[in-house]
Write a structure and sequence with these properties.
Number of domains: 1
Oligomer: single chain
Number of helices: 4
Distance between the termini: 17 Å
Bound molecules: adenosine monophosphate
CATH class: Alpha Beta
Low-confidence stretches: none
Number of strands: 9
Strand order of the largest sheet: 5-6-4-3-7-8-9
Strand content: 25-35%
Order of helices and strands: EEHHEHEEEEHEE
CATH topology: Rossmann fold
Largest sheet: 7 strands, mixed
Length: about 170
């Protein structure tokens, strides 16, 4: 199956100069959706039991739980500042302009747990790197970061010192 056919380019969204990769056509097609979750699950190392899959707000919350179900792992949301109700650990990270903050519940990961991080797009890598730092602060071990797609020309991979997997590379 050609997953590219289900990813739509939206020029100048959310601001001029950005080509937004819209995955809603992929989500709307049951075969493409299941294929995507199956393939991303198949990229996970077979010799390590993944304890938790982290999904990054918000598009990581869609396929992340599908991967977790397939791996018989738990699902943990990492959210933007102020959204999680219990005590949190926070990390600040750089955006193109300025900074943002991501948070995780302090009890979401136990020391030594094996973690898979999932999001829809790897762009500059700042977001995924920040989530790797959160996992490390809680004593978890990131086994892999996996994405529906990588924008290779932005070299996000270089920021991550863990294995990276993706279905589609642009
Ligand atoms: P980055 O931190 O630069 O790797 O950006 C990754 C985050 O921003 C992910 O959560 C993506 O959902 C989102 N993102 C970045 N660039 C794009 C893009 N061109 N299209 C859709 N989402 C994007």
């Amino acid at each position: 199956m050609k997953i590219n056919d289900y990813i739509r380019d939206i020029p100048d969204f959310p601001k001029p100069g950005i080509v937004f990769k819209d995955i809603t056509p992929l989500l709307a097609d049951s075969k493409a959706l299941v294929y995507c979750a199956d393939r991303l699950t198949s990229f996970c190392p077979k010799d390590i039991k993944i304890d938790k899959v982290i999904g990054i707000e918000s598009r990581g919350f869609i396929i992340g739980p599908m991967i977790a179900e397939r791996l018989q792992a738990g699902f943990v949301p990492v959210r933007k500042k102020g959204k999680l109700p219990y005590r949190v650990k926070s990390v600040k990270y750089s955006l193109e302009y300025g900074e943002d903050t991501l948070e995780i519940h302090v009890d979401a990961i136990k020391p030594g747990e094996h973690i898979l991080i999932h999001d829809d797009v790897l762009a500059t890598g700042g977001t995924a790197k920040a989530v790797c730092d959160l996992v490390q602060q809680l004593g978890g071990v990131v086994v892999q970061c996996n994405f529906i797609m990588q924008l290779e020309f932005l070299n996000g991979n270089d920021k991550l010192d863990v294995p990276v997997a993706s279905l589609v590379d642009y």
